[in-house]
Amino acid sequence: MSGAKGAQSLLPATAGQAFLLGWLSGAITYAGSCYWVMYTMHVYGGLATPVALGVQLLFCFWVGAQTGLFTLLLALVAGKAAKSRPQIAYALVAAPFLWVAVELSRSRIVGLPWDLLGNAQVDNIPLTRLATVTGVYGLSFEIMLVNTAFAAAILNRQRWKPLLGAAVFAAAVLQLSAFLQPPPAPASLSATLVQPNFSLDENWTPQHFRQALDAMLQKSLAPDAGQGQDHDPANLIVWPESPAPFWISERGLRTTASQLAIKAHADVIVGVLAVDESLIKPGQTDPEPLLNAAALIAPDGNWTARYDKIHLVPFGEYVPFKSLLGFAHQLTREVGNFVPGWKRTVFDMGSYKIGPFICYESIFPNEVRQFALHGAEVFVNISDDAWYGRTGAPGQHLNMARMRAIENNRWLLLDTNNGITAVVDPVGRVVEQAPRDVFTALSVRFGTVSSTTFYTRHGDWFAWLCVIIGVLSVSYSVINSYRRRASG
């Protein structure tokens, strides 16, 4: 700080200082919101507590570095003009653009857009209408814009009162809009979402496997209480991704699922494991390349379509840089064997189309929207969140999936192994959900939407615009700083 006659002015941080402060802030943020990483690594990854703690710290500092990148770029825009109010104001204006640019890099480069800032507004229905145009990134921009107004009030000592008043008013108006609720969305179809609640440590003997299939068959035909219980029989029955050995080639599974479709006269979606035979070489002795998939069974019992998961979970379904990270084979029973699919298959149900995506894929805005772009009129997300235990991760996962429904104006049927199983309407409301950690089948009503949103048609245009503006802002400031130093 520097000052005269008791007055003080804040000096901008250097680029290095800004990065370290942002990095630490981001690491602390993710230590609080993603504390479940250590639990997963220790309980299900088989890592000793100190090692699991180390993985937690590495995760927090890796993702936290993205916040460090934001503060670094902001410091470069602010420059070294400590007393230059126009330059500081310029940095404040650039801040929301830089934040969104970094969030896009988390999705497209880092591959971990978990808990993007805009997800915090998932319950504010009027405000989330912005996401149908800009995606979740527009909501992140809005949050940063309001917070930038508060920062401007703190930094401007002469005009802090009107600036602070304006910031408080804007924040209040935006939050009060959450009390405005649109009428219920029309729902003309029925579905049964089965939540088997299989333990990750199940001992899958042939007898136990047969009992599990029989129990799921009976529960699917006689679901528990739910909003759709008194409506027409289910048009769709969904079995989730689970730790059960539901191989697509397993005779018992195929027979049971076909029987279910015929008895219920309904389409059935089942989470399955498959082998990518196209990748098996003659004489190969390595583990078979596995696919995490969703299979569709028609009402006549025929298996008609399959979607193979494209975006796999690092350290959960495959090990990146396996030769360098040999210890990571402990993190899952099947680690290293899964291979990605390549086509975003849309299931044609006759009168409507379904976009199926699996677990982790729900956190990627641009990937999910492609199902709607290719004709999907309702989303189905099958998932196994048992890995998270009794932590807040399933709730975070649900909110990110809800944002995908909002962005594309689609109903979402979220069917999980142990919860949170739910039906979400096109504005992101959880219409019905099952209790966690119980074997149940939720009977729900849902609808279809054929129109597409601006975001569905044009994708991350707003985030890319922020990238362009951010790059121009940083470039302009760096060039100006260089010219000032050159001119002495």
Explain what this protein looks like in three dimensions.
This protein has 488 residues and is of the alpha/beta class. The protein has two domains: 10-181 and 461-486, no CATH class; 189-276 and 286-446, 4-Layer Sandwich (Nitrilase/N-carbamoyl-D-aminoacid amidohydrolase). It has 14 helices and 14 strands. The strands form three sheets. It has a six-stranded mixed β-sheet with strand order 7-6-5-4-3-14, covered by helices on one side. The chain has a six-stranded mixed β-sheet with strand order 8-9-10-11-12-13, with helices on one face.
From the helix content, strand content and strand pairing, which structural class follows? alpha/beta
Radius of gyration: 25 Å
Helix and strand succession? EEHHHHHHHHEHEHEEEEEHEHEEEEHH
User: Sheet with the most strands?
Assistant: 6 strands, mixed
> So what's the CATH class of the largest domain?
Alpha Beta
- CATH 4th-level superfamily of the largest domain: Carbon-nitrogen hydrolase
Order of strands across the main sheet: 7-6-5-4-3-14
- Which fold name corresponds to the CATH topology of the largest domain? Nitrilase/N-carbamoyl-D-aminoacid amidohydrolase
Number of helices: 14
